[in-house]
Amino acid sequence: MPWMRLADRALIHATGADAESLLQGLVTTDLGQLVVGELRAGALLTPQGKVLFDFLISRSDGGFCIDIATSQADAFLKRLTMYKLRAAVNLTLQPDAAAAIGLEREDGALSDVRFEKAGMPLLRRYDASTIEADGAEIYLSARLAAGIAECGPDYPPQDVFPHDILLDLNGGLSFKKGCYVGQEVVSRMQHRGTARRRVVLVAGEDALPESGATVTAGGKPIGTLGSVAGAQGLAIVRIDKVGDALAHGQPLAAGSVPVLLGLPAWTGLSFPEEPAEEAHQL
C-alpha cells in the first residue's frame, strides 16, 4: 500500500522542560511507557471521567507531538494552555498535520499501537504535504476491521468513558502512572468491573443506516451506530444486553437493518453469557 494522505488532522507540539510532567498529569496515556517511533492513543477526560478530547501522541525532538482532529484542535490547545499556568512548556498549533498512512517502514514513520494490537500494522508520518492520494476510505476500512472508534464519527465529546472505546486495552489508558484528570473514576470502573459499554463490529444484512442510528436487541435500545461503510460499521453498545439477546434468540438491528455484532478478537472480550446485574456507569 503506498503512502496516502489523511486530511482534517492537526498537530499540537508540546516542548520545554516541563512538557512531559505537565502532560503526564493530564492525559490518560502513560508517557513513561511511550518510546520513540511509537504512536499511542490518548484522551483528556472531564473530572467525571468522560472523554473530552481524543488524540494520538508521539515523542518528538524536545517534547511531544499530539495528532488530533482539526475540529478539536483549537479547543484542545486552549484547554492545555489553561492547565499550563507557569510551567516551562511551549504549545504550538500546526493546523495541517500533513499526516499520511502507509505500510512502508522508513525514516520518520511511526507505528500506531492501536493497529499493532489488532494485528494490522499501520504506520503514520507527518511530512506528507506532497502526497496527493486520499487515504480516507482506506483508513475508515482499517478502523472498521480493527474496531477503532474516534471522536466525531463514533461518539460525541463527553459521551463515553475510556473503557467504552477500548482505551483500557489498546495502550491509551494507564492505571499505574498516578493521578490525571478523571483518573479516580476510571480506576473505580476498572477495579469494580462496571464497564458495560464497548465498541463492537457491526455487519448488516443490507447497507447500514447513517451514523447515529439506534442499535436494538429485541426491539429495545442498547447503543448507537458510529462509523459506517456499506454493510460494515462500528457501534458502542451495552455488551451485557447483547449477551442476553443472544442467549434468548432475540434479533439485533441497526435502525431497521438486521445485524450481527462482534467484539474485536484482539481485545479478548466476549459477550456475557449470564444476564449482568444492572451496573450504573460511574
TrEMBL record:
Gene Ontology MF: a single term: methyltransferase activity
Record InterPro entries: CAF17_C, TrmE/GcvT-like, YgfZ/GCV_T_CS, YgfZ/GcvT
Keywords: Methyltransferase, Transferase, Transit peptide
Pfam family for this entry, one: Beta-barrel_CAF17_C
BP-aspect Gene Ontology terms: iron-sulfur cluster assembly; methylation
Keyword Methyltransferase: yes
Protein name: Aminomethyltransferase
